[in-house]
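Appendix C. Worked example: Galactonate dehydratase
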Amino acid sequence: MKITSLTTYLVPPRWLFVRIDTDEGLSGWGEPVVEGRAHTVAAAVDELADYLIGKDPRHVEDLWSLMYRGGFYRGGPILMSAIAGIDQALWDIKGKDLNVPVHVLLGGPVRSRIRVYSWIGGDRPSDTAKAAVDAVARGFSAVKMNATEELQFVDTYDKVERVLENVQAVRDAVGPNIGLGLDFHGRVHKPMAKVLMRELAPFKLMFIEEPVLSDHLEAIPELAAITPAPIALGERLYSRYDFKRVLATGGVDIIQPDPSHAGGITETRKIAAMAEAYDVALALHCPLGPIALAANLQLDGVCHNAFIQEQSLGIHYNASNDLLDYVSDRSVFAYDDGFVTIPNGPGLGITVNEEYVAERAKVGHRWRNPIWRHADGSVAEW
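Step 2, the predicted output written as structure tokens:
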């Protein structure tokens, strides 16, 4: 079997898909994307195609090494995301060729389903509380929300109070036993992170995500000493070498690699195994599309330290298209009692609606994240 072509599809709301075709008629799908840089990643996929055309797609580990080690410069979001989507598609082909799901090829499942959480949001505490109640009514046992608007290095206590009011409203609405993740989103610098984490201690949070940017790993042990909540990060890290520093520094309780950014199924499996050796939990990052989620779930099926899965159904980014629009069988992602079943179909376990993908690719997108500014006019972290 030989690879004959790689085709990318920019589809709304902000996603990039890749299809790898072979001379034996089998095709595999992956999702290589950096949100806001989809065109750049598509160009990287096109460049990597030069290494892959004519190769056997079933030699996944060798092709991964070829894409990573075949270039003098490596790592970073663009290259690793391009490799990630291609890697997902290669695993999809390998599973389809053998008529088994990817998780069987990775050693077989350690679980049949995994807990999922729902994103919630709102401009006022009452709106956020209602979103939490609605999520619980749909069966979710955990939710995640952004903690705050833009914050200066040192900011005012009225912003701190707004965070506390929002979290209190959610806790009052759903009670103490619903998992509540709070995402600082890299918007908070260390001085304000110390203030917020101390004030948030009573709320029994499931985790605090990206209390500071991963650029500031040296601050994590100091922040971890302030809060009883587990600390999570990793969506902006791209390889086992990035995560090596996280685990060696300490203070992180949950890693959140994204299998569409961190080198795909091949690399993320290795990252998860590294974390398990440090007794660190795994909560894969996935605010993306159905192919990415399918790849995530194949990993959740085999990684013992995975405990919860992010998913994007109904997330605020998905205005023009949502998670289920691009798959032929929507039931594969049916959520039941706050869990989703690990897909058991061949390959990634989903069937992509190719006609609809081609139709929406004609529309495409140029999604960019919002640009925020502080009151003084300087650019704020989003």
